[in-house]
Design brief:
two-stranded antiparallel ribbon, 400 residues, two-stranded parallel sheet
């Protein structure tokens, strides 16, 4: 267990440092500011309104679990609070995965190697080096749910399943499906439990949202899949760090069908939901890791290959922060102080979309808006991996 705890601590520390560096370099993701405004508003007024959504966030997504962070944000209304929560949640996911493999009969060393491979994988790196989202809790909670089911603990299963239903509304669909599978192929009481919780939470949330005249955001889906070739590439990206172990599950792979459908059959996105490191992929990636924990109990050598594959993908193939030849430590941006000065006031101010990183720093100002996203701009795009300043000429740079 010690290597897993050390690995989880190193993972959390490294990516917290990288995320804080990106914050001070004005490169932080918009989602961190969106959820920070949501939580500050909730702590002060009970509303989940934020400027990025332009409406209460709970009417966009069913993500009540994140409200547990409101007391911490009330004490220290800074983006750093969410970055700490993100790093800790993702790093901790290795712990229940280790215990899950052990519960299924894996020896200590293969279980530890699989847990470390999961942390090193490009997907987990992508989740950690991005904006805070409640979906960062999916690896921890899904592995914990599988562990509770493996131990046949009814009340632990109920608790973790209910927490999962507060991550996002699509968890209700997944848990409902898992409930049906559990009813016919595992134990009926767990199947009834999962399906009932999914039905009550899902129906309740959609009823409330429609009562207030809102439709929760969701992609449009169809039966046409025009991107099968890059999707195969994506599957290779998530299977190499697991030594392709999930493929040895046979017919059990069918349990993942709804997760494939969510990622692969969207029709209205300008970007693929399935790219490596996208938080949309967290359920599928975590389910693959859970399946690998089952496989290595009988085939322990897969764990060593998984760790080797994860390291190779991280260093040489995928666009991760650890890739050889990539420098991911940026100088603090000269305009950080101006952006930070807005966080201490409550005054209207607009940030053009290219200044998203600055808006995230200023987001404790509940009247700070991110504007003109999706509109043409004459400003050249900021290089993703080059140490260049933002150089914004917008009015916010002069401070409040």
């Amino acid at each position: 267990m010690r290597p897993v705890l050390i690995g989880a601590a190193i993972f959390a520390a490294v990516f917290l440092a990288l995320d804080l560096n990106a914050l001070h370099a004005l490169r932080a993701n918009q989602n961190t500011g969106l959820y920070l405004q949501t939580l500050i508003n909730f702590a002060h007024s009970g509303s989940t309104f934020n400027q990025a959504d332009g409406k209460p966030h709970m009417l966009v997504h069913d993500q009540w679990l994140m409200l547990a962070l409101a007391p911490f944000v009330a004490l220290w209304p800074r983006p750093e609070v969410l970055l700490v929560a993100q790093a800790l949640a993702l790093g901790a996911a290795a712990i229940p995965l280790y215990f899950l493999a052990r519960t299924w009969g894996a020896a200590a060393t293969p279980a530890a190697l699989l847990a470390l491979a999961f942390l090193i994988s490009p997907s987990m790196q992508g989740y950690a080096y991005d904006g805070f989202v409640p979906e960062d809790l999916i690896p921890l909670l899904w592995c914990s749910l599988a562990l509770a089911l493996a131990k046949r603990s009814f009340w632990a299963t109920a608790l973790v399943a209910q927490l999962l239903l507060g991550v996002k509304e699509d968890e209700a669909w997944f848990l409902g499906w898992f409930g049906v599978v559990s009813f016919f192929f595992f134990e009926r009481r767990f199947g009834v439990l999962l399906f009932a919780l999914a039905l009550l939470n899902g129906a309740g949330y959609y009823a409330i949202a429609h009562h207030f005249g809102y439709t929760p955001e969701r992609p449009k889906y169809g039966l046409i899949d025009r991107e099968w070739l890059p999707q195969l590439g994506f599957l290779v990206e998530i299977l190499v760090p697991l030594a392709f172990a999930p493929l040895f599950l046979g017919r059990r792979l069918l349990i993942a069908l709804p997760l494939f459908a969510e990622l692969f059959f969207t029709q209205d996105r300008t970007y693929p939901l399935y790219h490596s490191g996208s938080y949309y992929t967290a359920p599928l990636v975590t389910l693959a890791a859970i399946g690998s924990a089952y496989v290595i109990a009988e085939r322990p050598t897969f764990a060593r290959w998984a760790l080797a594959g994860a390291v190779a993908m991280a260093l040489f193939v995928n666009p991760t922060v650890l890739r050889v030849g990539r420098w991911t430590w940026f100088s603090p941006d000269p305009q950080y102080a101006a952006a930070r000065s807005w966080a201490g006031v409550q005054k209207p101010v607009d940030f053009p979309c290219p200044d998203t990183g600055a808006w995230t720093v200023a987001s404790p100002d509940l009247q700070a808006r991110l504007v003109d996203c999706g509109k043409p701009t004459t400003r050249p795009p900021r290089p993703a991996w080059k140490n260049v300043p933002l150089n914004s000429d917008a009015s916010w740079t002069s401070g409040p």
